[in-house]
Write a structure and sequence with these properties.
It is built from eight helices and no strands. It is rod-shaped, with a radius of gyration of 42 Å. The chain has helices at about 1-30, 55-110, 115-170, 175-230, 235-255, 270-275, 285-310, 325-330. It has one domain. Helix 2 (about 55-110) packs parallel to helix 4. The chain is mainly α. Keywords: Coiled coil.
């Protein structure tokens, strides 16, 4: 019996001692620094996951650069559209300025042969023309400065795009991503070329519209001349037709002056691509073809005008341009369409 009690006490003592050791070990483990492998995500220094690159990192970089390149393409497209608008307006300004300068030049020669009273009558119209020419020159200078700034921004954008392209090719890790880079570069070049073609087409269409408008004036000029030659008119009708005749004569002559250029009109967008080497210069054969068509158009207009001038009676006008004529010539009537510049030289 005593032996059984001793054995029972011995087991209790062993159990208490074991519990005490467990508590001591737990407190020691809690007091250790928390920089073991378990606290670093469960990956030890000898873990097979350590040292491998994360493929998602490169995929994220490639996609980010791709989006950046696409945004740059859109920005370049907006800049080229802005350049076209400036080119569009500059052509209108240059055309109007050329016509007005021709009127002023002719007036300076004509006023030497007329009396002083007639000079005073026309001085108001001439001064208005001079003022308009000065305003047009200021506007043309502003548009030229706009062209310089926009072209500089486009060139800077092209350089940045090349830098991003290089980073894209470095970030590409397979053939599919390299193909995407090639397509993006082609898309940027294609957008620039399409804008240049569109700009040239706009210039040619507007130039044709200007020629058509001049032909309409020639037809009206012929009709008025035929009525004057007929002679069956009252004094009031004759005076009115003579006034209209002088206005139309000046319009036909001075509005056709800007059309006498035979070289093709090349847009600013096309010139920019040619200077950067993206587009080649126009072949000489194409220049010759444009020269032939432009010359033929002008010969038709001039032949029809000269034929009627020979038939018309002499009209003695007291002044070279009166207020109504100057207003018609300087206002360009319905031809207020914005056209690109005929001066192709880049500043």
């Amino acid at each position: 019996m005593r032996e059984m009690q001793k054995e029972s006490q011995r087991r209790v003592t062993i159990t208490q001692t074991s519990s005490s050791h467990q508590l001591s070990d737990k407190s020691l483990s809690d007091s250790k620094p928390t920089n073991g492998p378990a606290q670093r995500g469960g990956i030890g220094f000898n873990s097979p996951m350590r040292g491998k690159n994360n493929p998602k990192k490169f995929s994220s970089l490639f996609n980010s650069l791709k989006e950046q390149f696409i945004v740059m393409i859109e920005k370049q497209s907006r800049l080229r559209e802005r350049l076209l608008k400036a080119n569009h307006e500059a052509y209108d300004v240059e055309m109007s300025r050329t016509s007005k300068m021709a009127i002023l030049s002719a007036w300076e020669k004509y006023k030497q042969n007329i009396i002083e009273v007639d000079v005073k009558k026309s001085s108001e119209s001439i001064e208005r023309l001079k003022s308009e020419v000065a305003e047009l020159e200021i506007r043309l200078s502003t548009l030229t400065e706009t062209r310089r700034k926009v072209e500089k921004a486009i060139r800077k954008g092209v350089e940045t795009a090349r830098s991003v392209e290089g980073r894209l090719r470095s970030a590409a890790k397979d053939a599919e991503q390299n193909e995407v880079v090639g397509l993006l570069v082609k898309m940027a070049t294609s957008d620039a070329e399409k804008m240049a073609i569109t700009s040239d087409s706009v210039l040619q269409n507007l130039r044709m519209r200007k020629q058509e408008s001049s032909l309409i004036k020639v037809m009206r000029y012929e009709m008025v001349a035929d009525k004057l030659i007929d002679g069956n008119l009252s004094e009031d009708d004759r005076e009115r037709l003579q006034q209209e005749y002088r206005v139309l004569k000046n319009q036909v002559h001075y509005h056709m002056i800007p059309l006498k250029q035979t070289e093709p009109v090349v847009s600013w967008n096309t010139q920019l691509l040619q200077r950067s080497g993206v587009l080649p210069s126009k072949p000489k054969s194409q220049d010759g073809l444009d020269h032939m068509y432009a010359t033929t158009d002008m010969q038709i207009l001039q032949t029809r005008t000269k034929r009627e001038v020979l038939r018309l009676p002499v009209i003695h006008s007291k002044v070279f341009v009166d207020s109504q004529e100057a207003q018609s010539d300087s206002g360009m009537e319905g031809l207020s369409t914005r056209l690109p510049s005929i001066n192709n030289s880049s500043r």
